[in-house]
Write a structure and sequence with these properties.
The chain is mainly α and 426 residues long. 77% of the residues lie in helices and 0% in strands. 47% of the residues are buried.
Length: 426
C-alpha cells in the first residue's frame, strides 16, 4: 500500500461519510466546542467572575452529580414518551438559557440552582442524543456512527480548550461573561442543527407501559450496566489518578501530564472508528468489553514501573501506559455503544440507556476517591489489587452479556425491525 492509499485510509477513519453519519458528527463537534470551552475555563470563571470559593464550587458540582444520578432513569423515560429529538432540542434550549444566566448569579445559592439544573438537563440530553443516534440509523451503522461522533467530540473539545486559553490570557470579568454567552450561542446553534435532522418514525409502544423505575428490575441488564460503568474508570485513571501518580511518584516533569492528555486526544481522533469494528453485535460488544477490561488491567501493571525508573525511561513507560489505557478506552467505549444499541427494546430505549448510564455515574462518584487511594496513597502496591479487579471484570464480561442477551427485556413487545426508515426534513 502506497503513501497515498495509507493517507486515504487514515482520512476515511477520521472524516465520516457524507449523509446522516457526517451530520451527527458535525453536530457533535459544534456542541463540543462550547462544552470543551466551559470545562476548560469553568473553574476560573466560578472563582474569578462569580467570587465563589473552591469549596463552594466542589460542593455545587458534587450535588449536581448526585441529582443527575438520581434522575437518570426517570429522565430517560421522557425520551421514550416525547421522542429523543424533541427532548434533545428542548434540553439544548434550556442549556442556552441556563448558561446565559450565569453572569447574573449572585452567591452560592444562585450558582447551586444553575449548576444543578444544568446537571439534570445534561443528563436528559445525553440519553436523548444517544437514543436518537441509535434509532435513526440502521443497526450495522450505529456503533461506527457513534465512533465518528466521539472522534468529532474530541476535535471540538480541543478547539474549545484553545478558545479557553485565550479567555484565560485576557483574564477580565468581561471576557469570562463573554465566554458563557458564547457557549449559550453554541447551544442555540446546536439546537437548530438538531431540529433540522431527519425526523424519526413513531415506535410502537407496549400496551402496558413500564413504570419509570421498572428497568432497574431487569437484573441481567443492570449487571451489564454496572460492569460497563466500572470500566469507565479509564477516564478517572487517565485524568485524575495518573497525573497524581506522575506528580508524587515519578521524576517526570509536570509538562508530561499535558503531553499525555494531548496524546489521548490525538489517538481518539485517529483510532476511535477503527477500534469500533466488530462491536455492532451483542457478542462483538461483549468481546470488546472483555478486551477493554484486560487492557485496563495491563495499564495498572505498567504504570507503577514508572515509579522505579529515571529520566527518559520514565517518560517512555508513561507514554506506553497512556497508550495502553487509551486503547482500552477506545475498545471499551465501542463495547458500551454496541450493548446500548442491541440490548434495549426500541420502545423503552430511553429508559434502558438511562439505566445503562447509572453504572458510569456511580463510578464517577466513587472512582476518583477510591482509585486514588489505591493507586497513589498506598505508595504503589494498590495497583496490583486494582489490576486484579479489572481482570475479574474481563472474566465476567462474556457470561454477563450472554445472560442479558438470552433474557427478554421488560416490556418488550416485538423484535426491532432490521432497518429504520427516516423522513428527511425538507
Amino acid at each position: 500500500m502506497g503513501i497515498r492509499d495509507t493517507m486515504r485510509t487514515a482520512v476515511r477513519h477520521v472524516v465520516p461519510p457524507a449523509g446522516l453519519t457526517r451530520a451527527l458528527a458535525v453536530q457533535a463537534m459544534v456542541y463540543a466546542v462550547g462544552s470543551g470551552l466551559f470545562h476548560a475555563g469553568s473553574a476560573v470563571f466560578f472563582t474569578r467572575a462569580l467570587g465563589l470559593s473552591p469549596t463552594q464550587v466542589g460542593l455545587g458540582l458534587s450535588l449536581a452529580a448526585g441529582v443527575s444520578l438520581i434522575g437518570t432513569v426517570p429522565l430517560g423515560t421522557l425520551t421514550d414518551r416525547y421522542g429523543p429529538q424533541r427532548v434533545w432540542v428542548v434540553c439544548l434550549l434550556l442549556d442556552a438559557a441556563l448558561f446565559s444566566t450565569y453572569p447574573f448569579v449572585g452567591g452560592f445559592a444562585g450558582f447551586l440552582a444553575v449548576v444543578v439544573a444544568l446537571g439534570v438537563v445534561d443528563a436528559a440530553a445525553g440519553v436523548a442524543r444517544q437514543v436518537y443516534s441509535i434509532n435513526v440509523l440502521r443497526p450495522e451503522e450505529r456503533v461506527t456512527a457513534l465512533a465518528y461522533q466521539r472522534s468529532a467530540l474530541n476535535v471540538g473539545f480541543g478547539l474549545g480548550a484553545v478558545i479557553s486559553g485565550l479567555v484565560l490570557a485576557v483574564d477580565t470579568i468581561a471576557a469570562y461573561r463573554g465566554m458563557v454567552w458564547f457557549i449559550a450561542t453554541v447551544m442555540l446553534v446546536t439546537a437548530v442543527f438538531v431540529h433540522r435532522l431527519p425526523r424519526l418514525p413513531e415506535v410502537a409502544r407496549p400496551t402496558e407501559p413500564m413504570s419509570r423505575l421498572a428497568v432497574l428490575r431487569d437484573r441481567p441488564f443492570m449487571a451489564v450496566s454496572l460492569l460497563s460503568g466500572l470500566l469507565t474508570a479509564h477516564q478517572t485513571l487517565y485524568l485524575t489518578v495518573m497525573p497524581l501518580w506522575v506528580l508524587s511518584h515519578t521524576d517526570a516533569p509536570k509538562t508530561v501530564i499535558a503531553a499525555l492528555v494531548l496524546l489521548n486526544t490525538i489517538l481518539v481522533v485517529l483510532l476511535q472508528v477503527r477500534a469500533s469494528r466488530g462491536a455492532d453485535t451483542v457478542a462483538g460488544a461483549g468481546r470488546a468489553t472483555r478486551r477493554g477490561a484486560l487492557l485496563i488491567a495491563l495499564f495498572c501493571l505498567v504504570l507503577p514501573i514508572s515509579g522505579l525508573t529515571r529520566g527518559t525511561l520514565t517518560i517512555v513507560v508513561l507514554v506506553a501506559a497512556a497508550a495502553v489505557l487509551t486503547v482500552a478506552e477506545l475498545i471499551e467505549s465501542a463495547g458500551a455503544w454496541g450493548l446500548t444499541s442491541t440490548l434495549p427494546p426500541a420502545a423503552q430505549r430511553g429508559a434502558y440507556v438511562g439505566a445503562f448510564r447509572l453504572g458510569s455515574q456511580l463510578q464517577f462518584l466513587a472512582g476518583p476517591a477510591g482509585l486514588t487511594a489505591l493507586g497513589v496513597t498506598t505508595g504503589g502496591w494498590g495497583w496490583f489489587p486494582m489490576a486484579a479487579l479489572f481482570a475479574l471484570a474481563a472474566l465476567a464480561a462474556a457470561p454477563l452479556v450472554a445472560w442479558a442477551e438470552r433474557t427478554p427485556r421488560l416490556g418488550e413487545a416485538a423484535p426491532e425491525p432490521a432497518e429504520a426508515a427516516v423522513t428527511p426534513v425538507p
